[in-house]
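lol ok so funny story. i was supposed to be doing the assay writeup but got distracted and ended up predicting the structure for this chain instead. priorities right. anyway since i did it might as well share w the group, maybe its usefull for someone
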Amino acid sequence: MKPQELVLALRALGLTQKQIQKRTGIPQPTISKIGRYGDRDVMLRTYDALRAAYEQQLKEGPVAPRAPRGRPSTRAAPAEPVAPGSAPAASAPAPASTPARAGASSRRRPALPPVVLRPFPRGPLPWPAMHRD
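and the output, tada:
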């Protein structure tokens, strides 16, 4: 298997890039590059570490999915499909407007004045008085 295929297979078995890093000792940014771009110039020890982690994971089996991190989603659940010939269910009225972000201003920036291009002066450039003979 190619290094990219090993990384993608480990990810398909449920390992995160951080978990692959802990098992192989390969930095997470390198694992990301191998998985995304298929780095062709991979050191032998990197390939061996990925292969060993893959073989070990095959023996252990897939990893159970983790609970999502971060805040729960505030998006509304998708609407249920309506069967043909039936009336759609009544829904709650949509809010009149979305609340403004804290500290956000509703004013627009003032327009900048137009740029005026002037022609370059022809002839010799004026020298300061101290340079004259």
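The helical segments are 3-12, 17-24, 28-37, 44-60. The first helix runs from residue 3 to 12.
back to the writeup now i swear
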